[in-house]
Write a structure and sequence with these properties.
By secondary structure, this protein is an alpha/beta fold. Helix content is 26%, strand content 28%. Strand 3 and strand 4 (40-43) form a beta hairpin.
Length: 290
């Protein structure tokens, strides 16, 4: 994968700097490219095309986890092809294949790759960006990024991880009780309580914070889990603007959310056919972040 570097940006005129507006591009699923005044941030690139990048600005690439839908191995080429690139990865140490893969990378790439398992804090190499990780309920981490006076959040797979329906869970519960009577297995109500408690625990780091822009998982695969997740996020923190993600191309769920929860949609930037949002966008289209 080649990364095109745009070399026609001028930073000599104060007016250009003063008039700069932070931009975003939705790359599909959970992927975003954010063009800030001081750097370019790329999150969970899996789909879509990366546009020409500003050669004089640092490029920070984030993968909330190393799983299909959130990660492409081509990101490591950025370290070799771009003059100022760093990679931040959320991953699970228990997956030996991941460790083997990362250890096999050339040393000149490894020197610019940082891995996050659970909660951690790390400054970028130029110390102009602070990255904090939050444990995700499914895989990897979510990222809090503080840069240039802005605070940005990418939720990764941090959502209410109630992935089993009541019917499916009860079938599994009865089966486990028969096969393993010695185990103390949670019933469905306790399972739901566990999922709620887990989300509350992992989002503790977000409580009371103000985010300039957030990318939040409106996961559509498990019934109303995505909607309930967004509602919980709205209780936890404040967001100047936010975008739904983890959509699997099912953009109709965004339309439904806008219809059902206009109070949360008014500062949304998302792929939708509905009015009442901050901005309706298309995948691959550049938009103002705020």
């Amino acid at each position: 994968m080649c990364y095109t570097v745009k070399d026609d940006y001028s930073i000599l005129e104060d007016k250009i700097v003063a008039d700069f507006q932070d931009k975003g591009i939705y790359l599909g699923h959970s992927g975003f490219l954010l063009e800030l005044e001081s750097a370019t941030l790329i999150f969970d690139w899996y789909q879509g095309e990366i546009p020409p990048l500003r050669g004089e600005k640092p490029v920070y690439i984030f993968a909330s986890n190393i799983n299909q839908g959130h990660f492409r191995p081509e990101i490591f080429g950025a370290v070799e092809q771009l003059p100022h690139a760093e990679i931040f990865i959320g991953y699970d140490h228990s997956i030996s294949e991941v460790d083997t893969f990362l250890d096999s990378l050339p040393e000149k790439i490894q020197d610019h790759v940082s891995c996050f398992a659970g909660e951690a804090r790390l400054y970028s190499e130029n110390e102009e960006m602070l990255v904090s990780s939050v444990t995700a309920t499914e895989n990897g981490v979510a990222f809090i990024v503080e840069i240039g006076g802005k605070t940005i959040f990418h939720g990764g797979t941090l959502y209410l991880n109630q992935t089993a329906s009541e019917e499916d869970y009860n079938k599994w519960y009865e089966k486990m009780k028969l096969e393993h009577p010695e185990l103390n297995i949670a019933d469905y109500d306790n399972y739901l309580e566990h999922c709620e408690d887990e989300f509350e625990k992992y989002t503790e780091k977000l409580k009371g914070r103000n985010f300039d822009y957030a990318m939040l998982p409106l996961e559509p695969k498990y019934g109303d889990i995505g909607v309930r997740t967004i509602k919980r996020y709205m209780e936890v923190a404040d967001y100047k603007t936010w975008s739904p993600m983890q959509l699997h191309g099912m953009y109709e769920v965004v339309d439904e959310f806008v219809n059902d929860y206009p109070q949360f949609a008014k500062n949304m930037i998302g792929v939708t056919t509905k009015s009442g949002v901050k901005k309706a966008i298309k995948s691959g289209e550049k938009y103002n972040l705020y």
